[in-house]
Backbone:
């Protein structure tokens, strides 16, 4: 199975101990190892049962990689049958149900799947929606095979708690048939050489109930997970956000929340103002800022500029209208023609990777880094800066108070919401994505003011 990531022995042992915490296995029980790899979980089960004096459950291990299966069989394990089979294939549904299911499902984003695989999965799995990952399907198949009262423990990326593509899985996990007993977040570097933000999730096939959570800082709490498929982020992170709900969101009071511009060749199109050829100033340049500059300059105004072929209305002149820009760009033509946006999508050789919405960009806006340890927002009131791709910008609707909105975005209240809902990045950073920030609650009167103006 593609996406195999070996599970360290001590981590497998921790997961197996949790699997058997509330119910000791017996010889009459059945245990399933989906995507078993080289058999680390099966080996730990034998070790734990022997040391505790428990009966060995009857095991079935499924794997598609014959080399992994050979390694697993060579362990000489007594309780398990190793089978070369597609765990996501329809034949698995012919199996009996299992009292225990444990494993480390493969992590394969949709880009790693063939067209045929994507189509088949979308037809056969309710969790195969949007930009789904293979481990979501492993969850669905395993829940189908879990017996009444049975227990499942998986280690996966924590992303299923909040990404849009995992909404069907979250809905399934909080249905009347299943109880998410606990979610334990473990060190982000638990897998050598990989930053995966893993968590161990334990589910029992029984009526739903409260969920115990342990975070990476060691803190614990009990929560009730949303049952409508909405993000678990706030519940899992222990944030009480009920007082923030106003019925109005940032998306309601802004014209646009977007990342800055990607040119596909910043080494060509971005320069220090002092290094720009005189014939390009001022007609062919716009001030710009990167995420790093935004922080170090404590604001959006820098000495960097975009050398930009686009006019203020966002149109791209024909090649014979480029004048001084065309003479300069010709010096870099080979590099510009080598970009994917030219080769694959047919853009003109001097165009940017993305068409800039100049009429939005060239007005007062609020800017912020795409990835930040502490979310912070800055005013760009001049309406002159065209941000680079590592800087997001938002444009308030007319009559929404600019300074009050900026102050609110930098407030502890808004920061708490963002830290509770935004996707995690490495080293304690957060991804401030447009689709998430649009749901940030804001004072209801701003929407009312806007509607009154209309």
Residues:
């Amino acid at each position: 199975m593609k996406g195999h990531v070996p599970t360290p022995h001590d981590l497998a042992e921790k997961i197996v101990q949790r699997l058997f915490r509330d119910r000791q296995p017996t010889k009459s029980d059945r245990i399933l190892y989906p995507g078993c790899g080289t058999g680390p979980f099966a080996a730990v089960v034998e070790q734990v049962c022997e040391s505790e004096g428990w009966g060995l459950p009857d095991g079935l291990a499924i794997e598609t990689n014959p080399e992994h299966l050979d390694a697993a069989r060579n362990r000489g394990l007594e309780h398990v049958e190793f089978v070369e089979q597609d765990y996501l294939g329809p034949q698995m549904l012919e199996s009996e149900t299992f009292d225990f299911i444990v494993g480390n499902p493969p992590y394969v984003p949709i880009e790693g799947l063939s067209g045929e695989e994507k189509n088949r999965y979308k037809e056969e799995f309710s969790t195969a929606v949007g930009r789904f990952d293979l481990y979501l399907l492993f969850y669905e198949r395993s829940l189908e095979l879990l017996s009444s009262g049975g227990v499942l423990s998986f280690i996966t990326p924590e992303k299923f708690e909040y990404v849009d593509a995992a909404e069907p899985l979250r809905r399934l996990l909080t249905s009347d048939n299943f109880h998410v007993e606990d979610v334990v977040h473990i060190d982000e570097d638990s897998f050598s050489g990989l930053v995966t933000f893993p968590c161990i999730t334990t589910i029992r096939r029984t009526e739903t109930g409260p969920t115990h959570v342990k975070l990476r800082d060691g803190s614990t709490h009990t929560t009730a997970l949303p049952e409508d498929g909405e993000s678990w982020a706030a519940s899992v992170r222990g944030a009480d956000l009920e007082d923030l709900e106003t019925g109005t969101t940032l998306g309601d009071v802004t014209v646009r929340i977007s990342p800055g511009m990607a040119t596909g060749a910043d080494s060509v199109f971005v320069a220090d103002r002092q290094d720009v050829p005189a014939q390009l100033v001022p007609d062919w340049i716009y001030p710009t800022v990167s995420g790093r500059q935004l922080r170090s300059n404590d604001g959006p105004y820098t000495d960097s500029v975009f050398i930009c072929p686009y006019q203020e209305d966002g149109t791209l002149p024909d090649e014979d209208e480029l004048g001084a820009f065309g003479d300069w760009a010709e010096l870099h033509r080979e590099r510009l023609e080598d970009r994917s946006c030219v080769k694959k999508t047919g853009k003109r050789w001097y165009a940017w990777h993305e068409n800039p919405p100049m009429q939005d960009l060239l007005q007062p806006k609020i800017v912020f880094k795409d990835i930040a340890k502490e979310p912070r927002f800055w005013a760009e009131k001049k309406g002159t800066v065209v941000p680079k791709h590592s800087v997001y910008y938002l444009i308030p609707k007319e009559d929404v108070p600019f300074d009050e909105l900026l102050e609110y975005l930098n407030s502890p209240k808004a920061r708490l919401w963002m830290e509770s809902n935004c996707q995690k990045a490495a080293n304690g950073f957060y991804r401030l994505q447009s689709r998430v920030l649009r749901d940030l609650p804001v004072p209801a009167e701003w929407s009312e003011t806007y509607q009154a103006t209309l």
